[in-house]
Structure formats: C-alpha cells, structure tokens
Specification:
Layout lengths: L7 H13 L5 H19 L2 H6 L4 H5 L7 H6 L2 H19 L8 E2 L5 E2 L10 H12 L17
Antiparallel strand pairs: 1-2
Length: 151
Amino acid sequence: MDDPQFDETQRAQAIALLEDLPWGDLEQELYGLEAALALALEATGHAIQLWEGEDGGEERFGDEFALSAGQVDSLDDEWRLAYIARLLYTAAQAYGVSPGATPGRSPDGQVTSPVSWNANGSIARLLRGLNEILSGVSPMTQRNPPNSSRR
C-alpha cells in the first residue's frame, strides 16, 4: 500500500471539521458563488484585454497583487475595471471556473455556472465532491444547478 497523504491525526481533524459544518445549504451556496463569479466575469466583458494587452497592467504595475491602495485609488475608471477583471480572472482560475467561458442561461433565464468540475486540484471540485458525498450522490455525477429563487 502506498504511503497515505494524511496521517491519522490529520484524518481525524478533517472528519471533525466535516462533521461540524452545516452541509444542508452548501449546494445552493456553491451555486450562488459560481453564478455570481460567472456573472461578474461576464460583466467585466473585454476589460481583461486592457490588463493583459501590450503595455498592460503587468507592464505598468506588476502582477495584480503588487498594486498599493494608493495606486488603486488613482486608477481611472477604465483601468479600475481592467484591474477588477484581472482579480476576477485570478479568483475564477483558483476556484475552478473557466474565465474564458461565459455562463450559460437556461430557457427561463437561470444562469448556469461554467465550473470546470473535473479540474484536478480545484476548490470547486473539492467542495462539490464533498457536498455530493455527504448528500449521498456519486461525486462524479453532474447534477443540474439548484433552483435559485432567492438570488
């Protein structure tokens, strides 16, 4: 048998954390997070191109984490939107949402998330997988997004 990734103490701590969290609303909350992130990416439109382009944000400021509060305050509206778009793209990639994908919409206007569920190592895969395991659903089964009547 291969060496386990976690020792017994870490496993016990992880199980204790899982058992302590309220899982009942997680599916709805995940959908809300994913849909909000997708819509924010959609709303910033092509602003990311300004940041990523020649003489863009990284050329001017360094990476998105290098700007000081004063630099952010001094950005004009166009550059501020480009900066927000860059931050959203970074968050989306870390979470597991494909920033290049636009959210889909069902015939009745519901937003569907562009989560790349199979992206190994993504936060989305971890949270969705845990939620589905604890809900008694196979973690590799894609389910339809919940009805988002309160969003």
